[in-house]
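USER:
Make up one protein:

ASSISTANT:
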Amino acid sequence: MEHKVHSANQDCGPFYVEVAGEGLGFAAAHFTATAEEVEPLHGHNYRAKVRLWSSLAPEGWVMDFRQLRKVATSLCRPLDHRLLLPGESPFLLVCEEGKNYRVEAGGKTYLFPKEDCLVLPLPNTTAELLAQWLGGQLLLNLPQGLGITRVAVGVEEAPGQEGWWSCNLCQGGGHEG
């Protein structure tokens, strides 16, 4: 009986790469606000994961891990040691007052120094929406010509609790030669 041997040179893709761990974390405070409740202010030691799908480049990779980690790390850094505020929330109001942000939510008023805060263009600061924001920033900062067909970003706020966002970018794709 003859056995066919699969060639490693065949492009059976799509392939994907993932970076996680070192450099892809940030410690931040937040609270979520809904029509029913406003969570107490609290923090997490967040961990991010990034996945990219594409056919292989001539080098035999989707993207150099070092380069992807560098981009992803640069996106997490501004979130570290900040209070994350949702700038587009229908359930809380964020106003600038001199060197502070005044935040009104659930009948409470908070005053936070601007330098300790990051106002994000999000309706809430959930893990899923943070993953979506990071994914959008990632797409803006990736080198051109990679032919990425799909991206996914996960944000873990505690062990066993992570929210994911993914986006199919195009059909076919592949590295441009």
